[in-house]
Amino acid sequence: MTDTKSQQADDLILAEGVDEEPIESNRRLFSGRAYLVMAGLSTIYAAFHMIALNGVSISDWTGIEIPMLPQFPLETWNFRIVHISGALALGFLLFSAHTFADDDTPQKQTRLLSIVALVLAIPALISGFTASGYHTMINSGTLPQMGGLTTWAAFPGTEIYASEVWWFGTPLLIATFGAIVTGWVERREREVFASSDVVLAICAIVIAIYLIAIYGTAARNAVGTPFVPIGVAFAATAGSALILELTRRVAGLALVIITGIFLLYTFVAHLLPGILAVQSAYSWQRFFGHVYSDAGILGPTTAVSSTYIILFIIFAAFLQASKVGDYFVNFAFATAGRARGGPAKVAIFASGLMGMINGTSAGNVVATGSLTIPLMKRVGYHKKTAGAVEAAASTGGQIMPPIMGAGAFIMAEITGIPYTEIAIAAIIPAILYFVSVYFMVDFEAAKLGMRGMREDELPKFNKLVRQVYLFIPIIILIAALFMGYSVIRAGTLATVAAAVVSWFTPHRMGLRSILKAFELAGIMSIQIIAVCACAGIIVGVISLTGVGARFSAVLLDLAGVSQLLALFFAMCIAILLGMGMPTTAAYAVAASVVAPGLVQLGIPTLTAHFFVFYFAVLSAITPPVALASYAAAGISGANPMETSVASFKIGIAAFIVPYMFFYNSAILMDGTWVEVIRAGVTATVGVFLLSSGVQGWFLGGRSAWFLRVALICAALFMIEGGLITDLIGLGIAAGAYFVQKFLHPKPDASIPVRGAD
């Protein structure tokens, strides 16, 4: 009998399928031919990126020239245009404009509306036929040349101008906006394509055909000026509308509303007072001719999503196919499950490992929280605390090197600082974050007298050690980066390693599994690409209007009063901009508005961007709009607002860490080894004291309120980073220890005040 129980414990698997993508309530679930079409398109889309990023030229290998493209591999702008349009087409076919019922309730059909929507394909095809004609015209060699480039004389009164307005732009806008509106009310079965969504996919492709043709001419130099071709403004208007609608479908309304406010600001800025005002109004043609360029949608956010982000999404898909995510969580259970409050500590380790790969706080909560939150509740955590722990841990995955979600890649793109330097600088801040969350969780477990998990509830550590080779892809990624390989080459090697490692597991990846991984990657990439493109619209507004520079001027004025006040103001802006937005979009926008002002204050570029990045990440657990906390509350069954407040409390030390960058750059590995080690040790002690003060648990017992205040003050002195402040902090902590150890004040003790009356 004992042997049987032992065997059962050996074979116990707590985590299974934790790294599988959750099925959104508006995602279509295709079957039959429709599934094969979507699987094929998704696979081609993801594989295309992997091939192009590694410099594989189909035309060089096969001698086949790809029609409709100026060259292959693609020129940078063309590559980004294809990247966005492909994601838009896939996204509209896959994600409905409305949600589906969870049960098998038959979907109400709107067949007449579907026919009306299908009619909208006619203007979309007319526009596409016209754009294809422009390709033929440009490649014919009949147009004049200027500086080695073909000219595109689309001026008012010319035949080209009239063609762009009536045969390209107008039909495109009719099809785009008509299909968006009909998509809101059209209803089809979940397993079939909606007519309006097919039209939107066609429009996305038409936009790419037109822009690739026109941006290959001298007209590209007119982008951002009043002389931009009218067709570019039409295409950019339709493209922006498609991006906003897909973002609404995959990421909710928050980012769409914020983008809408920025778009409205563009056209009313000349009417506003103060720092928000601009001298003259912007025309529709100039703005939308500017926004679909490398100063907006095709700028840094799309540059990163089309390279680093989609590459690591492919890497994550390969890890998912080899079930590495399950192994990560089981390894965390075997390592930390026995400690008091074990499942909460498992959530910290597992969510940190998973979160750095999957790139979204809320998505990580859904993946690992579905397992860890019920277990936390089972060992005694309140449901709001269980959700808060998972939300805080999942959010921390965004700052965990080497992958750091996706925001670090955008930081490297914007600042020009090598990614490896950013990853190294992130080590101590990431440690401080997870150490603080660990202390908060441990002290909560101590106060509640919790136990760890029993031996028979956990997977055997010895068994998991024999599968430690599943960490090899991560190790190869880190090693390749620090050996000087590019991020793209390192990511490719790690992806190949994930496939090879799977051959030593029951989930061996053959050709079918590899194609399936590419299919998953294509689907998984849609949300982040839409979000990055939407953030690009905001970046375009900021670059055209210069509002970011005016915010920088405000920060400079505040710094004249107090640099600390300027930093606090920058923190508030970064959190407000990030509320309700995914990390990548939140950081991209905040980096455009806030970071330049911090740099002008004299703060080093890396420090300024890390400051903004941290608070963009922490917006996911900051009330009142905390996406990660809301996702956790949905699993735990707690009140969302209570969960967000609890997660804010658990992650409170993380709100202090960015200020440490400013006062002590050694935290970012900027200094001698002695300075770095001292800064790391003292900051860790400070985080411990802060957690003790917030939780009211110090050295094995509950603390009176005045000791908690003293501990928090000691923590702030320790965190400041100077030698004298460290000594003051240690002195206060020693005094608190003496009072706690020898005077034994009651936890509810108060300081008596005599003679006040």
Automatic annotation (TrEMBL):
Coiled coil: none annotated. GO terms for molecular function: transmembrane transporter activity. Residues 240-668 form the TRAP C4-dicarboxylate transport system permease DctM subunit domain. Signal peptide: none annotated. InterPro entries: DctM, TRAP_DctM-Dct_fused. Keywords: Cell inner membrane, Cell membrane, Membrane, Transmembrane, Transmembrane helix, Transport. GO terms for cellular component: plasma membrane. The keyword Nucleus does not apply. The keyword Membrane applies. It is found in: Cell inner membrane. The chain crosses the membrane at residues 34-57, 77-100, 112-134, 165-185, 192-215, 227-246, 253-277, 297-319, 422-443, 464-482, 517-542, 554-577, 584-603, 609-633, 645-664, 676-698, 705-738. It is a multi-pass membrane protein. Part of the tripartite ATP-independent periplasmic (TRAP) transport system. This is TRAP transporter fused permease subunit.
